[in-house]
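Structure tokens please, single chain.
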Amino acid sequence: MRVVRHTPQHVTITTSEPVLWILGISFLLAGLALTLLLSRVVTLTCDRSLPPNGACTLTSSNYVTSKTYELPLDQIQGAEVQISYGDSDSDDTYRVVLITTQGTVPFTGYYSSGSQKKQQTADQVNRFLTYESQQNLSLKVDDRVWMSILGGVFAGA
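Here you go.
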């Protein structure tokens, strides 16, 4: 930084261009990383007609990677909403987990606000497990739009 003008009322300081370039590139890379790595779409697809007793597929993917879990339908016991209790300065956050004979499998790897939507998702899974006349279930959680907006803010800065 260097002082361009100095009067009793004003001081004008400029920064050198390399500092601005480094800051700009840092924000651009942070925005791209947010968009590419944290933007996720999670789908749960269950089908009772798949042998031997039906199966569910839980797929979580972003713009770079994808993970798929195959779960036999007879191992899924239900779904519930887990709560991460906030402290006095923050609110509680929620996520849906599948309860299996092997333990719990998170529907999403993160907690977020909005307990009602999470409860609706858990209720849909539990209804599917209860009513055997329902042959298929397909659920999707897509946060790519919000993370792309957040990444765009960083990249734009």
